[in-house]
């Protein structure tokens, strides 16, 4: 059967003026992942998954958590990654994690450890996890309350920031943390997984913030950085004076970099921005000009595995089987990415970034990023019955 949530999203987007041809591609590429996929024609794909799953099985704590010292986020990512690669919610490895996460459902609807500074981040990842596990409405109420929580702490009029504010529409780690692209795009992922499209006010607000974090002058972005480095890529945040993890240009612009550009690209698609929109075109041109699976462009090995995740998710959402770089060379990005990841897998089945920035020294986190990445390396095919 067709995925009815995906159909609902598609019809909702159609009502908002996004082309049917684009939505069919988005529907096939992003909405049916849990239902069917063609076999990946790469000898290393299945062995990689098997070794990684065996590693994670041995890394799970007795209480079902993974890296609980870092909050609930890693556990949510691991469980989601396992389910997106064939494990069911009843699989013991997944089930124990779901039980662990449920104990952190808070009275305000958020899902986070008490006292956490990362309430938005942890709740968004938990939404992705429980939505992936939702069968016969088992987690409907939990998800409804979690959605209300992340929408409530999105930066908008309730926080004293109207549309003119650079913070408007964004999300930070928690209720009072200044918004940034990474947390905002996790929020967009969570809402999209729940079937929310461009008709949802929170998605509309998020798109305002995301558009302002792009190095591109448009009717959607008149910030001072828009024309300073107009390469079409994205940086970390326009809020609080603006900043990029890749630093500034000599003209005091904010440098674009790979992980944020792909995060921005897929989030615009999820929010209903069509493929012919100047914002999507400019971001894709940046991707062509900076294509690589060897590093996070503009950042080297900083956040490398987070980059792989956003890279694969964006190109999958865009429906791109191949990408042509600025030298005119055509790349089968799925095969090249699998090659790269196969070469980086450690003997114990995990992955690890020698650059430990942003927790990428944690093999549980990094291995979950890789499994999520690999879930987008399957080409999806529609299933009619």
What's a quick, concise take on this entry?
The chain contains 14 helices and two strands.
The number of distinct helices, counting runs of at least 4 residues, comes to: 14
What's the architecture in CATH terms? Alpha/alpha barrel
| Distance linking N and C termini | 5 Å
Mean pLDDT over the residues: 89
- Structural class by sheet pairing and helices: mainly alpha
Which term fits the overall shape?
globular
Give the helix level as a range of percent.
40-55%
Low-pLDDT sequence parts: 1-39, 381-385
Strand content: under 5%
Overall strand count: 2
Largest sheet: 2 strands, antiparallel
Order of helices and strands: HHHHHHHHHHHHEEHH
* Strand order within the widest beta sheet: 1-2
> What is the CATH fold-level name?
Glycosyltransferase
Q: How large is the radius of gyration?
A: 19 Å
């Amino acid at each position: 059967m067709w995925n009815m949530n995906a159909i609902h999203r598609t019809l909702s987007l159609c009502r908002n003026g996004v082309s049917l041809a684009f939505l069919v591609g988005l529907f096939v590429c992003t909405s049916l992942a849990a239902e069917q996929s063609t076999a990946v024609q790469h000898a290393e794909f299945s062995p990689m998954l098997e070794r990684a799953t065996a590693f994670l099985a041995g890394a799970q704590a007795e209480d079902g958590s993974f890296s609980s010292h870092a909050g609930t986020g890693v556990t949510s990512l691991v469980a989601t990654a396992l389910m997106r690669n064939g494990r069911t919610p009843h699989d013991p490895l997944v089930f124990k994690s779901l039980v662990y996460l449920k104990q952190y459902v808070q009275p305000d609807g958020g899902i986070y450890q008490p006292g956490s500074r990362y309430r938005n981040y942890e709740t968004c990842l938990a939404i992705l996890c429980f939505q992936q596990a939702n069968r016969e409405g088992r987690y409907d109420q939990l998800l409804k309350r979690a959605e209300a929580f992340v929408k409530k702490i999105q930066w908008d009029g309730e926080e004293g920031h109207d549309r003119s504010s650079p913070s408007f529409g964004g999300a930070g780690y928690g209720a009072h943390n200044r918004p940034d692209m990474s947390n905002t795009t996790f929020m967009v992922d969570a809402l999209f997984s729940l079937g929310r499209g461009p008709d949802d006010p929170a998605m509309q607000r998020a798109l305002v913030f995301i558009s302002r974090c792009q190095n591109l002058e448009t009717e959607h972005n008149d910030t001072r950085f828009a024309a300073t480095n107009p390469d079409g890529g994205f940086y970390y945040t326009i809020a609080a004076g603006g900043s990029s993890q890749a630093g500034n240009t000599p003209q005091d612009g904010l440098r674009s970099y790979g992980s944020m550009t792909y995060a921005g690209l897929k989030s615009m698609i999820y929010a209903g921005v069509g493929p012919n929109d100047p914002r999507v075109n400019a971001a894709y041109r940046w991707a062509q000009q900076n294509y690589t699976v060897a590093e996070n462009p503009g950042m080297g090995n900083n956040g490398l595995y987070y980059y792989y995740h956003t890279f694969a998710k964006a190109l999958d959402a865009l429906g791109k089987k191949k990408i042509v770089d600025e030298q005119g060379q055509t790349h089968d990005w799925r095969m090249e990415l699998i090659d790269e990841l196969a070469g980086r897998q450690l003997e114990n089945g995990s992955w690890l970034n020698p650059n430990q920035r942003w927790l990428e020294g944690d093999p549980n986190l990094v291995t979950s990023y890789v499994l999520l990445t690999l879930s987008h390396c399957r080409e999806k095919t529609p299933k009619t019955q």
